[in-house]
Task: inverse folding
C-alpha cells in the first residue's frame, strides 16, 4: 500500500525566504513587461509615454518600427524643442495641434532614406510641405480626411505628412494623385517604412479635389 504523501510545515524563516523570492520574481516580471510596453511605444524606460487626454498620442510602435528607426539614427529618448518648426508653421498660416508638436519634438530635423519603404525618403521639417501645400488648401483636406486643423509635420519622396488633433495622420501625394489616412502615427510609419498599409485607408477621388495652382 502506498504511503500517503507527507506535508512538511515550513519554518517561519523558510516562509519569509519563499515570500521574498516570489516578490523578487514578480518584480522582475513586471519590469520586463514595462520594458516591452515602453519599447513598443517608442519610449524609454522610466519615462512617461507620449500620451494625452485621448490616449496614446502617437499610437503604438511595433518592434520592427523601433528597430528600423534606431538603425536610421533615431533614439527612443529623443526630445528636442520644436519651437523653430512651430514658428514656421504659424507664420505660414497653419494651425498647430498637440499631435504635431509631439511628432516634431521626437522627430523634428530627422531625414530618413527608405529605398525599400513605401516612400523613398522623408524629412521631418516644414520646408518640403510649404513648397507644395498652402494653408488655404486646408478646407479641402479637412473634407477629405473628415478632420479639421491638420498640420504638416514632414514631407519627401513626393508626399506631405499631416498630423491631426485626434492623433489621425494623413499622407498626401503632392500632385493630389493619392491620399492615405491612418488612425495613428505608429500606423503610418508601417506604411512609410515597410509599405505595409493594412492599417491605412485610401481616400477616393482625391485628384478631382486638387485645388487650382
Result:
Amino acid at each position: 500500500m502506498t504511503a500517503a504523501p507527507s506535508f512538511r510545515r515550513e519554518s517561519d524563516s523558510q516562509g519569509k525566504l519563499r515570500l521574498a523570492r516570489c516578490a523578487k520574481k514578480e518584480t522582475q516580471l513586471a519590469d520586463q513587461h514595462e520594458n516591452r510596453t515602453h519599447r513598443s511605444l517608442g519610449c524609454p524606460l522610466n519615462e512617461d509615454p507620449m500620451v494625452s487626454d485621448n490616449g496614446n498620442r502617437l499610437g503604438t510602435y511595433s518592434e520592427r518600427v523601433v528597430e528600423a528607426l534606431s538603425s536610421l539614427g533615431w533614439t527612443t529618448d529623443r526630445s528636442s524643442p520644436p519651437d523653430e518648426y512651430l514658428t514656421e508653421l504659424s507664420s505660414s498660416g497653419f494651425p498647430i495641434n498637440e499631435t504635431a508638436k509631439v511628432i516634431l519634438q521626437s522627430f523634428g530635423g530627422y531625414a530618413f532614406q527608405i529605398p525599400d519603404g513605401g516612400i523613398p525618403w522623408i524629412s521631418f521639417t516644414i520646408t518640403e510641405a510649404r513648397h507644395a501645400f498652402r494653408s488655404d488648401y486646408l478646407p479641402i483636406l479637412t473634407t477629405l480626411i473628415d478632420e479639421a486643423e491638420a498640420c504638416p509635420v514632414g514631407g519627401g519622396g513626393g508626399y506631405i505628412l499631416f498630423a491631426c488633433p485626434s492623433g489621425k495622420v494623413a499622407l498626401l501625394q503632392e500632385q493630389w494623385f493619392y491620399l492615405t489616412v491612418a488612425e495613428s502615427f505608429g500606423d503610418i510609419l508601417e506604411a512609410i517604412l515597410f509599405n505595409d498599409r493594412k492599417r491605412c485607408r485610401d481616400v477616393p477621388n482625391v485628384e478631382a479635389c486638387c485645388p487650382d495652382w
Remarks:
- Confidence is low (pLDDT under 50) at residues 1-55.
- The two ends are 96 Å apart (CA to CA).
- Helices lie at 12-40, 63-71, 83-91, 98-107, 127-132, 138-145, 185-194.
- Residues 139 and 148 are 8 Å apart (CA to CA).
